[in-house]
Amino acid sequence: MSEKELVRLQKLIARSGIASRREAERLILDGLVCVDGAIIRELGTRVSEDARISVRGETISESPRVYLALNKPRGYLCSSDTSSQFPSFLDLFPKDLRFVHHVGRLDVASEGLLLATSDGALTQIVTHPSFEVPKFYEVELRGEIPADLEDRCCRGEEVDGEWLKFESAGFESRGTDDPLLKVRLIGGKNREIRRLLEFCGVGVRRLVRVAIGGLYLGSLRSGAWRNLTEREVNALFDFGKTENR
What we know:
Helix content is 20%, strand content 30%. The protein has 245 residues and is α+β, with helices and mostly antiparallel strands.
């Protein structure tokens, strides 16, 4: 078989549905992936699609394409790690659906809409900034609110050597008892909303993601999940079309 007919190992793992491509790369680096019985740690490794690939000792196979929306409660981790003090988001699904992976992250203290899927292609579209899939949040604040908070957050600030900014932000209510800020992000870096607001001197009482692209949390109760409709799935894939990039 020629080099051109070989496929990157992380791509095959993502295609199986057990992890996104980025997570597959971490699994490889951690020595948790074997090809035909040999541990592989090199990210550039290309293998035959007929190769026997195992992750954490279990042979992978093509999984059905599943697309789920979960209302992640506070206190759950976006990880399949069972050694954490916090429960995994996977615990909220029945056992026959726990082969899915999360699409992007909500930190353990945050709540709201979390996509879970077995489709690595959709994960790439929703999480990579180049596809510009917007994410929408409602943030309950605490503490004194600076008059220029929205302007500062939308202009951006350098925090710990990293540039953080909101695509847009506006108050639904600015009262001292229940200030509620609506935030729109493109991409989304690790804990970007919390870090930027805290840098501006404002605390976060509650953070809820309410939408991803045209997919809305709606009335889905905390801890509950549902299958995406075909229309919702297609709308997310539309962000990956060349003319939308």
